Amino acid sequence: MSRLAKKGVMSIQPYQPGKPIDEVKRELLLEEVYKLASNENSLGPSKKALTAIGKALKDLNRYPDGSSFYLKTKIAKKMGMKPENFVFGNGSDELIAVIIQAFMNEDENAIVADPTFLEYRLITEAYGRRVKVVPNVNMKYDMDGIRKAIDDKTKIVFIANPDNPTGTYVNDKQITKFLENIPDSVIVVMDEAYYDFVDAKDYPDTMRHLKDRNLIVLRTFSKAYGLAGLRVGFALANPELIDCMNRVRLPFNVNSLAQVGASASIDDATHLKKTRQVVLKGKKFLYSALDKIGLPYVQSQTNFILVDVKMDSWEAFQKLLRYGVIVRDMKAYKLDSYVRVTVGTDKENRKFIEALKEI
Ligand SMILES: Cc1ncc(COP(=O)(O)O)c(C=O)c1O
Predict the structure, then answer these.
(1) Is the pLDDT of residue 1 over 80?
(2) Span 25-38, pLDDT tens digits
(3) Domain 2-45+270-358 has CATH 3.90.1150.10
(4) What residues have CB less than 8 Å from 231, skipping those under 6 apart?
(5) Is the CB of 40 under 6 A from ligand 1?
(6) pLDDT in tens, 306-324
(7) What separation in Å is there between the alpha carbon of 264 and the centre of ligand 1?
(8) 228 in ligand 1 pocket by Cβ < 6 Å?
(9) Which residue owns the Cα nearest ligand 1 atom 6?
(10) pLDDT average, residue stretch 59-79
(11) Which of 4, 308, 313, 323 is the most buried (most CB within 10 A)?
């Protein structure tokens, strides 16, 4: 009963995920449905991951390795870091909660941009901590505005780089200047969920700041690695920050299939390369098709595009559903005439464009 809820819980807006394929099939009696709503990998997971998961099934009577030892060691080697620089989570979104639990006192605040990934705000507020919002300027993070918003109670600054839902990014110079000009009582969380899709030459190499700055970088296996359903993400930081996070996370937060699946997918460079090619090619196709239709969009460093459909966002979403295309309406982000579409396979991208023309 809601009267039993802790103070503040009833004013939390639950996160709305993309509409599932089966739900659309069921509701609209459609046989073919294309989900371009959650920035997933349309090529599916790596075959290597599936084989490794199959082999691990027989050991499901055992608890997972609580430290994700093999996964951690492997990825550390690949990235030229130490295992002590890593902590894994049940998706990178779990690590957002872990960060808040580990670092934010009750009277401290976090700074988020607007629009950006909504979970920063929702999770911070769910823990009863205050959020300060700094609006984006021309769909880009306002780094000076964020710096100015920092006060003596600010503990965390969340930066999605590249950003979701805009697809824009903050460049190396901006990040370096920002990190050099903030108090050392502030932790910057740099969420690089879409890192593998970036092709901008001046995108920051955040690894070089890890040693000297209060910086936590988040990455995920949900996007380019195609393992969103397994739930694996990780944080990289200096060992002191990682130690604080390890103290508050649950002991078995990453299940055994997730650990072996993620570990095997690191070995599948071909799948990653193909994924990147499909996204880069798909983006070109979509940009050119949108240009022809005459609809504005935001240039993206990710596997999705924010499109101004020049009509009500929710209405566009509903109408596209009837053609079996699921996109994400942007009402929750107050972008009332925009939808966000994930770059899919050739067939999916064409379907989206055809349906868009119809509506
Ligand atoms: C910017 C950003 N960060 C984090 C996530 C969550 O990723 P995960 O599946 O690892 O929880 C998403 C998912 O859409 C995202 O867009």
Answers:
(1) no
(2) 898 888 889 999 99
(3) yes
(4) 90, 91, 94, 222, 254, 255, 258
(5) no
(6) 999 999 999 999 999 999 9
(7) 21
(8) yes
(9) 93
(10) 97
(11) 313
For the chain, give every residue range classified as CATH 3.40.640.10: 47-266
pLDDT at residue number 7: 83
Candidate of 90, 99, 116, 119 to mutate for ligand 1, largest count of ligand atoms within 8 Å of Cβ: 119
Within the chain, all domains assigned CATH 3.90.1150.10 are found at: 2-45+270-358
Q: Does 91 sit in the ligand 1 pocket, CB within 6 Å?
A: yes
- How far, in Å, is the centroid of ligand 1 from the Cα of 108? 24
Per-residue pLDDT tens over the stretch 256-314: 999 999 999 999 999 999 999 999 999 999 999 999 999 999 999 999 999 999 999 99
3-state secondary structure 69-137: HHHHHHHHHHHCCCHHHEEEECCHHHHHHHHHHHHCCCCCEEEEEECCCCHHHHHHHHCCCEEEEEECE
Q: Is the distance from CB of 233 to CB of 221 less than 8 angstroms?
A: yes
Q: What is the mean pLDDT of residues 37-50?
A: 97
Q: What's the helix, strand, coil split of the chain in %, to 5?
A: 45, 15, 40
For 47-266, the fitting CATH number among 3.90.550.50, 3.30.2310.20, 3.40.640.10, 3.40.50.300 is 3.40.640.10
Among 25, 37, 33, 32, smallest CA distance to 228 is for 37
